[in-house]
Design brief:
This protein is α+β, with helices and mostly antiparallel strands. The chain has 2 domains: 71 residues, no CATH class; 188 residues, 2-Layer Sandwich (Nucleotidyltransferase, domain 5), CATH 3.30.420. Helices cover 41% and strands 22% of the residues. The chain has 8 helices and 13 strands. Helix 3 packs antiparallel against helix 4 and helix 4 packs parallel to helix 7. In the N-terminal section; belongs to the transposase 2 family. In the C-terminal section; belongs to the transposase 35 family. This is Transposase. It comes from Nonomuraea mesophila.
Amino acid sequence: GKAGSTRRSPAESKPIAFRPDAAQPFDDRCLSWQIDARTVSIWTVTGRLKSLTFTASADQITLLSAYRKGESDLVCRDGMWFLMATCDLPDRPVTVPDGFLGVDLGIANIATTSTGTRHCGKGLNAVRHRNRELRRRLQAKQTKSAKRLLKRRRRKEARFAANTNHVIAKQIVTEAERTGQGIALEDLQGIRDRVRLRKPQRVTLHSWSFHQLGSFIAYKAARNGVALIHIDPAYTSQQCSACGHVDKKNRPDQETFLCTSCGFAEHADVNAARNIASRGVAGWAVSHAA
């Protein structure tokens, strides 16, 4: 706001402060890695701390040795210290795909592929519902201890969601790589606006990071040389993957697809994933036409 305004005055009078648990960035001049010895050396305001031991998996050590580059961040979470390094991995050349593996994202199942694989259904939804109810009870208490617990719960839920998305993305990319296919993924832009759901389902939709899952699939696909294409998902849930007929009545309920034209029946998510796969093939042909 302008000088002296009701918005600017409080902001200017408030002292600049940093969170005690905020990430502390270090470049290579202030933090050096001795990867073979699994130690680091860090410059601090009281001098250099040498030979600080760190732990990492064998795969992480391999990545650090070959690809670590740039800034490292030191973070304290729940009394434990984590050192986060940036690794710049080269992408493999994209293999010309032999067809596409379609991936439909949804509520009952986070992801469903055109081969019929459904990732994380009722079990995951039960965990999400339990976390949501616990959050609601803690928010209602409005005590300091409840707020501290709520903060820890949020971080735990974020880690759970990220780990689940990593696992799903890895399984999808592995299947595509094994079968020599590319991956067709629906364009996630506006997914929360275009999907019409009942209130309980809307809460579930907004509580999951589909964009994070999409980005995990994208970078894992690039790392493994798997082709990736995004398609317009319009009417993929209403279109028959057998004959192409589009009709709202093709969906008698949430899980079932039953074509009113040819009688084809399939799980609704699998049918949508097959439509996405077909559009992936068509889109790739257009974008890579000679």
